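Fold this sequence, please.
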Amino acid sequence: MEDFQVKHHLVRTHRSAERFPRAEHLAWRIAEVATDEVEVARETEEMMINRIIDNAAVAAAALVRRPVANARAQAQTHPFTPGSTVFGVGNRYSPEWAALANGVAVRELDFHDTFLAAEYSHPGDNIPPILAVAQHAGRTGRELIRGLATGYEIQIDLVRAMCLHEHKIDHVAHLGPAAAAGIGTLLGLDTETVYQAIGQALHTTTATRQSRKGEISSWKAYAPAFAGKMAVEAVDRALRGEGAPAPIWEGEDGVIAWLLGGPNAEYSVPLPSPGEPKRAILDSYTKEHSAEYQSQAPIDLARRMRERVGDLDQIASIVLYTSHHTHFVIGTGSGDPQKFDPDASRETLDHSVMYIFAVALQDGTWHHERSYAPERAKRPDTVELWRKISTAEDPEWTRRYHSRDPAEKAFGARAEITLQNGELIVDELAVADAHPLGARPFAREQYIAKFRTLSEGVIEEREQDRFLETAQRTAQLSADELSGLTFTVSEDVLARAPRLSKGLF
């Protein structure tokens, strides 16, 4: 689907003395896509509603975790009229702070949608900043859908073309420009203003990958939320006439030259042709399990293999043959000893496929809280099994990971389990059960079920019903009704959050 009426733009570094018209800058090309008034396809609209529901679901499950409570507390010190809503509480707050608070809530459990190609991404991270601006600026649901379609399109197109992690740059560097472009579409801004906002957003959201390496902290959730906040601020400055570094990607001291492949690198970025609907969201997928996306299929694989294995104490070793990305990011190829540490943070365990496979093999299920509980990670039999597991890169899995053919693209693994008697048990799974090509693909019914499950004990049933009814009418919502794309909870629920330290505000 990617190559249907898509134009590929060759992007490289240009010397300052070289003639390089603004109309050829990648930021300008993206701004042109953002300002193309093409209608949103019906299937894109329907999937966007699914992802709005999905984001609210995972935000509800994370609502009283400390990072989320702290971000919410920061936002609550910035009340604003008209302002934007914040998950869990009433009143309205300054849109950039609402974007931060909601972005942390959505990202905290690493449980929402994903797209993997040359780079990684969670394109649902676009929803908090674009929705916050839509509520603040009095836009309709139809305008919101248009803005979100752009945000998803730009982030996914950048992810298809530009690998960031190879150069140790965090993947939110694709999110900042995407969110700025999406806000530009939402507000109906001109190409020049969107161009400047994109440049500023990229410049302020490039950072190293250390947020996802070694001792992974709560900043893993804050990083994309901060990128969304920066996108809101970038648009505000651009509207006031403030410019951006240019050319931001292609400049002699720009992103490509010094943060990515260097002065001689070239990237081919696919963008929709003029008049072509923005469909990239349809290539993304959500999670059934609260774990890094590349561990979704291994979880399902472990659940499938446990009966064949029988007595897990008889396991001598397990090798997961998988893609380069999985091996080096969440596998033993990372070289991170923290991925075998029973005292590791939840964020670190979430990025250890060895831990995840061990727990899924033992429990036959996965839970967003119980599977990461400190007492669960420290169970002696779990630690023993965990340390018997390793990963190895298989060139065929790497090839399939990068395939542009949706029927061939895969994020799974082949598990080879050796028992103490020498017996070898082998099975493999290419895509997670919830993937569009999986055993149980997610549709509206599954998104609603996920919301109900994660909202249980957090959002009262009447409020769940109200939110779901509102969300499913997103494209028809008036500006006044757009404030309904949130949820509130009782003071008793909010009181479950840990005691917070006071900050500056």
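Residues 42-62 form the longest helix (21 residues). The mean pLDDT is 96.
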